[in-house]
Amino acid sequence: MDGSRLKIGVLTSTRADFGIYQPLLKELQVHSGEFETELIVFGTHLSRFHGYTKSEIEAFTDFPIHEVYGMPLSDTPQAIADAYGSVVSNFSQFWAVHDFDWVLALGDRYEMSAAVQAGIPQGVKFAHLHGGETTLGAIDNIYRHQISLASTLHFVATDAFAERVKEITHAPHIYAVGALSLDNLSQLKLPSWGQVKKQFGIKTDEFILCTFHPETVAYGQNSTYSQEAAFALAQLAETVPVVITMPNADTEGTLFRNAFDTLKNQQPNSIFLVESFGRLNYFAAMRQATFLLGNTSSGIVEAASFKKCVVNVGDRQKGRPQSGNIINASFDAESMVTVSNQALAAGDYNGINIYHKAGTANRILKHLTDASL
Questions:
Q1: pLDDT, tens digit (0-9, with 9 covering 90-100), for 78-135
Q2: In Å, what is the CA distance from 138 to each residue of 3, 133, 170?
Q3: Does this model's pTM top 0.90?
Q4: 159 forms bridges with which residues in the sheet?
Q5: Does position 369 have pLDDT exceeding 80, yes or no?
Q6: Are 243 and 213 in contact (CB under 8 A)?
Q7: pLDDT for the residue numbered 220
Q8: How many angstroms separate the CA atoms of 118 and 183, rounded?
């Protein structure tokens, strides 16, 4: 370890958290004289089934990369619980031989929680991003709070989330820095939609951008929910094509994958499936889309900055504060279609994004430095 620089480890397990990290990774590169950065890559990044998104990381940065395995072989509750134990075991070995001044952990996924839990007995100093949030339809609530309890530094998106982390952890070092994914968003050079649609075989300029993940609290309902989503999309696609980004590795996510694969076979000219856009391509798709439909956090946090309305479905994101671009729908086809027609009629959103604060990445770096003095 170079004693003149802070050594930062960055835990990344999915395409989603890596996309959020990117503004911070760029700043860490700019300030490489002050920070020595290494990426700790695990989860779906190393899964061929989920697009092997480690390759996107390698294309984005030349930071050293460590790999830690342990993903489940299926998406049943037992398989995920078994995988949690495997990730804890593998990270226990990893933390035993790798030292960092700070390790960044983002979000609320079960494998992120497992990586952090393994570091507690070994005194790893964690800094948690996006703590204090609430998602009543996902068991991620529990994992998020576990990560917060194990962390020394907290970088949250809003003042309300800072108060919640304080209630949960009683920690003194909590900073409301804004949502990292929105940092310098206006300065990003996004690819043209023409480039993106050619790369992913999408044959339309007008579409609904759709992302559904399973609800992991009421996971027994996901068979019904996946079919209701497919029914709604089948109806909507008769009027406006639909671009679907595939679900992540949550409990019973395969149900949604199978429903969308079937839908694609039935309506090949109006349904388009994408395993992983990558951050810039996804933002280009969001910019081009008519509106967003689904239950992903990107609809809550990012879409307002692209002036897009969002049809937020079900309870997965319930509890997160919403900007004025969100229209909520229940998890049945009739509600989704009705509310989607409202979004079509509403057009662009011209209000504020409550998650945005300027200079988020630099704020984080400053607090990491100050906490190390």
A1: 888 998 999 999 999 999 999 999 999 998 999 999 999 999 999 999 999 999 998 7
A2: 41, 12, 24
A3: no
A4: none
A5: yes
A6: no
A7: 77
A8: 31
Give the model's pLDDT for residue 49. 67
Q: Who has greater pLDDT, 52 or 203? A: 203
The pLDDT value recorded for residue 53 is: 79
Encode the chain in three state secondary structure.
CCCCCEEEEEEECCHHHHHHHHHHHHHHHHCCCCEEEEEEECHHHHCHHHCCCHHHHHHHCCCCEEECCCCCCCCCHHHHHHHHHHHHHHHHHHHHHCCCCEEEEECCCHHHHHHHHHHCCCCCCEEEECCCCCCCCCCHHHHHHHHHHCCCEEEECCHHHHHHHHHHHCCCCEEECCCHHHCCHHHCCCCCHHHHHHHHCCCCCCCEEEECCCCCCCHHHHHHHHHHHHHHHHHHCCCCCEEEECCCCCCCHHHHHHHHHHHHHHCCCCEEEECCCCHHHHHHHHHHCCEEEECCHHHHHCHHHHCCCEEEECCCCCCCCCCCCEEEECCCHHHHHHHHHHHHHHCCCCCCCCCCCCCHHHHHHHHHHHHHC
- Measure the CA–CA gap between 182 and 168, rounded to whole angstroms: 26
**Beta strand pairing status for 102-106 and 126-129?**
parallel
Banded pLDDT at 353 (limits 50, 70, 90): very high
Mean pLDDT across the chain, nearest whole number?
93
